[in-house]
């Protein structure tokens, strides 16, 4: 054998190592440095690695996450079409706050919230005002801040104290409202839900509203169960309170999910700006707006409903712009994705997509209601979300936490969790049907639920319940 040709240190040898390029060709992917050795987990490595190696490691770790299509716990969208993904990649570098550099993206943002203002029946969309946000949590924060500032301005004009603002909400409210009250020193007054009043419906509202109430939050799609809170009934209760006390309390509608369902599937339901007391509405575009996370929208009925002193004029990169936001730099790509979907689907396309999810939810709730172990809390006829409970006295061998764990073995993420205070001894399970969850997948889920129940029913002794924790995801 020719010694020169077999010498790996000889640069003329076909096996000579002359750098990472040759090393990559010579060695299998998973045997090269970084794949065959460990990276530190909680500190920056001392040296660099091949981009292919870094990619593969991150890719492989992310495989340990659940399958998003089988995650029936989250409201957040997990599917967009190939054109949207292409647009996303093309616009990933756009900074929404930099309106001087990206004026067309800024113009598209304005088009989108005006479209949404019209969708929500604003009396005059040109005299409305809105903005995109990082998800509906920021949108809710901005809506709450506007309510607080309006109340403060009115109290100061009347020479009254602004020391003790409060906000009235359902006990089943999303956690972002608890954060708002905590962060901005507002007393949260929770109206408890009950078996008789499953949502905030105006019942006993006069016990919670007083001169320090900055507003009432109505939820279009309660996180725990998916049920709508009747905005018109809440407004009617506030009308009666004003007749008796003179207090004029406004409503912010948290339409995180229902804000993009009701306009297409429940067109006759008056929940939006058709209700005079509603001054602002927020929604989560990355839920039933069908956009990847994270994007939200908030719109005020009129420019006058957003106090001027909350809006900043900011000089940035050669321009001056008004801004009302908690975040500064943030992605512009999702705004373009929202505009793409508005153009791609139109009103009828959105209606058909939402109807498909609605139909699957009703199918699933009907199948689950037919299983003798369960009793529905609601059937998914509002947003495509429903919850059920274990029938009282059905079994002492297992509970819904055990069923959730059993379904996870098949890849399904279906949370079990306690309801809010006053009925916290009641545990429910909830399914969220999103775009991309087909009827075929739903049929497979029903089979797996029935098999899991049959397995649990065959147990001869109770499963230990120690250490069980809620798997509820807001």
Automatic annotation (TrEMBL):
Catalytic activity annotated for this protein? L-glutamate + H(+) = 4-aminobutanoate + CO2
Q: Name one GO molecular function term.
A: glutamate decarboxylase activity
Q: Which InterPro entries match?
A: Glutamate_decarboxylase (IPR010107), PyrdxlP-dep_de-COase (IPR002129), PyrdxlP-dep_Trfase (IPR015424), PyrdxlP-dep_Trfase_major (IPR015421)
A GO CC term? Answer: cytosol
Record flagged with keyword Lyase: yes
Q: Which domain of life is it from?
A: Bacteria
Keywords linked to the UniProt accession? Decarboxylase, Lyase, Pyridoxal phosphate
Instruction: Report the SUPFAM superfamilies cross-referenced here.
Output: PLP-dependent transferases (SSF53383)
Q: Report which residue ranges the record marks as coiled coil.
A: none
Q: Does the keyword Lyase apply?
A: yes
- The Enzyme Commission number assigned here is 4.1.1.15
**Xref: Pfam families:** Pyridoxal_deC
Listed cofactors = pyridoxal 5'-phosphate
Question: What top-tier enzyme class does this entry carry?
Answer: lyase
Q: Could you tell me the Gene Ontology terms of the biological process aspect for this record? A: L-glutamate catabolic process
Q: PTM N6-(pyridoxal phosphate)lysine: list the residues.
A: 287
Q: Which family does it belong to?
A: Belongs to the group II decarboxylase family.
The identity of this protein, by name, is: Glutamate decarboxylase
Organism from which the protein derives = Homoserinimonas hongtaonis
């Amino acid at each position: 054998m020719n010694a020169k040709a077999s010498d790996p240190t000889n640069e003329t040898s076909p096996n000579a190592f002359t750098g990472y390029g040759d090393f990559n060709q010579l060695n299998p992917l998973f045997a090269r440095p970084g794949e065959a050795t460990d990276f530190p987990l909680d500190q920056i490595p001392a040296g660099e690695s091949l981009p292919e190696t870094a990619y593969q490691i991150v890719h492989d770790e992310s495989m340990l996450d659940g399958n998003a299509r089988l995650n029936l716990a989250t409201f957040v969208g997990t599917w967009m079409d190939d054109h949207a993904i292409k647009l996303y990649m093309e616009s990933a570098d756009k900074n929404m706050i930099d309106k001087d550099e990206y004026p067309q993206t800024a113009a598209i943002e304005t088009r989108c919230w005006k479209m949404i203002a019209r969708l929500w029946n604003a009396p005059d969309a040109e005299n409305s005002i809105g903005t995109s946000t990082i998800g509906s949590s920021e949108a809710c924060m901005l809506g709450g801040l506007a309510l607080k500032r309006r109340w403060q301005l009115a109290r100061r004009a009347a020479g009254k104290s602004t020391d003790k603002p409060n906000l009235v909400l359902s006990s089943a409210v999303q956690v972002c409202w608890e954060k708002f009250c905590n962060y901005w020193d507002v007393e949260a007054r929770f109206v408890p839900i009950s078996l008789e009043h499953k949502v905030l419906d105006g019942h006993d509202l006069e016990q919670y509203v007083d001169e320090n109430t900055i507003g009432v939050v109505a939820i279009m799609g309660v996180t725990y169960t998916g049920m709508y809170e009747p905005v018109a009934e809440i407004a009617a209760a506030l009308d009666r309170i004003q007749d008796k006390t003179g207090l004029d309390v406004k409503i912010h509608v948290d339409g995180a999910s229902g804000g993009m369902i009701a306009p297409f599937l429940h067109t006759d339901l008056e929940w939006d700006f058709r209700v005079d007391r509603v001054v602002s509405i927020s929604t989560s575009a990355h839920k039933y707006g069908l956009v990847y996370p994270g994007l939200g929208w908030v719109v005020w009925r009129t420019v006058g409903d957003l106090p001027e002193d909350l809006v900043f004029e900011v000089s940035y990169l050669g321009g001056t712009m008004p801004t009302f936001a908690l975040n500064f730099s943030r992605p512009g790509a999702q705004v373009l994705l929202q505009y793409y979907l508005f153009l791609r689907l139109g009103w009828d396309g959105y209606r058909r997509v939402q109807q498909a999810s609605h139909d699957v939810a009703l199918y699933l709730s009907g199948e689950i209601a037919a299983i003798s172990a369960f009793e529905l809390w609601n059937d998914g006829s509002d947003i495509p979300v429903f919850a059920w409970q274990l029938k009282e006295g059905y079994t002492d061998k297992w509970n819904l936490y055990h069923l959730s764990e059993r379904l996870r073995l098949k890849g399904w993420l279906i949370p079990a969790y306690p309801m809010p205070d006053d009925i916290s001894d009641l545990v429910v399970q909830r399914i969220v049907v999103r775009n991309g969850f087909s009827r075929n997948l739903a049929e497979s889920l029903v089979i797996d639920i029935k098999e899991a129940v049959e397995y649990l029913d065959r147990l001869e002794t109770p499963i230990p319940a120690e250490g069980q924790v809620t798997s509820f995801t807001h």
